[in-house]
Amino acid sequence: MARLFVRDIQPQCSVDEIYRVADRQVRANRQGNSYLLMQLQDKTGMVSAIRWNVDDKVADRYPKGSFVRVQGASQLHNGVLQLIVNHLTVIDPSQVNNDDFNGLDRSKIDKDWSRLAQLVDSISNTTLNAICRVFLDDSSLSSLLQTAPAGVKTHHAYPGGLLEHVVSLMELSDMVAGHYSDIDRDLMVAGAMLHDIGKLEELSFQSEWSYTDSGQLLGHLVQGVAMIEAITSRLSNSGLSIDRDTVLRLEHIIVSHHGALEHGSPKVPMTLEALAFQYLDELDAKINAARDLVHQDRTSDPWTAYNPTLGRKLFKKSFGAD
């Protein structure tokens, strides 16, 4: 029997398939009865699933990262597909076809990586070029950068998502710097490559996707600056002349790219490059999130349901949806 991938689940159909538990929480309904809310995934995507009348003791049988056989039915809730689970069975990982869960598109990764290398080579500032090249030349760092998601849920939340996001922003930065002559093009492109580099330490994405302890306690903005400081110290000790003013402006892009204190940035953008980059980062993240919202909407309605993250409904036909 052919596998029922997440992307192929239709509303009002029976489901009997193996998925990986990406997340799970025990919640209470309006009557105070507890239920298990899970995020299930395979290489094609993620779907919410609910099992009623489950307490913490039962939920502990299905930890994040485990594989479960899900038997139940699909339905639409506010335009979004979800599963109502009747039976859950833990499956030994040895019985699972890993190809069903490896969402890494190697051909796309290679294409994005080649483009990233081209853009790094185009950075003429020696300090910025040297910092960026560390992530190309270090096999451990380059492997992480090629496979990491950009987030656990919000945008580019899939293997290789961080690289896709970074390359998109490097290209956008190159375009914007060409339009505004007083923007430092090299600083913008390097900032685009390194703005989320702290996510390599903030996120755990080898099996289950979650936040590391240091990620929870520090966050990728602080972690990113710490990584840049360690790299520049190593480069300086090797004899390379480092322009500290350039490093400072690069680090400012990293710490301010969320744009506002209430969004997690310890500083708001205060340089032209940081200000421009804040809006480019938000643009790329929001477009990706909007595309995902339209893709996940399975109704025939030309409009999606209201999305609280984006703060609106979306007109699906404008995204090429039928």
Please tally the helical runs, counting DSSP H or I stretches of 4 or more residues: 11
Shape: elongated
Query: Averaging pLDDT over every residue, what do you get?
Result: 91
In the sheet with the most strands, the strands line up as 1-2-3-5-4
Query: Separation of termini?
Result: 29 Å
Q: Name the beta content range.
A: 15-25%
- SSE class: alpha+beta
Q: How many separate domains?
A: 2
Unreliable stretches covering 5 or more consecutive residues: none
Report the count of strand segments.
7
Radius of gyration, Cα only, in angstroms?
Answer: 22 Å
Helix content: 40-55%
Describe the main β-sheet briefly. Answer: 5 strands, mixed, barrel
Order of helices and strands: EEEHEEHHHHHHEEHHHH
Concise summary:
With 322 residues, the protein is of the alpha+beta class.
Could you explain the architecture of this structure?
It is a single chain. The chain folds into 2 domains: 6-99, OB fold (Dihydrolipoamide Acetyltransferase, E2P) (Beta Barrel); 104-290. It has 11 helices and 7 strands. The chain has helices at 56-59, 106-121, 126-137, 139-147, 161-179, 185-194, 199-202, 213-217, 220-237, 244-256, 272-296, and strands at residues 14-28, 34-42, 45-52, 67-77, 80-91, 203-204, 210-211. Strand 6 (203-204) and strand 7 (210-211) form a beta hairpin. The protein is elongated and about 65 Å long. The relative contact order is 0.10.
What descriptive keywords fit this protein?
single chain; alpha+beta; OB fold (Dihydrolipoamide Acetyltransferase, E2P); 5-stranded mixed β-barrel; two-stranded antiparallel sheet; 11 helices
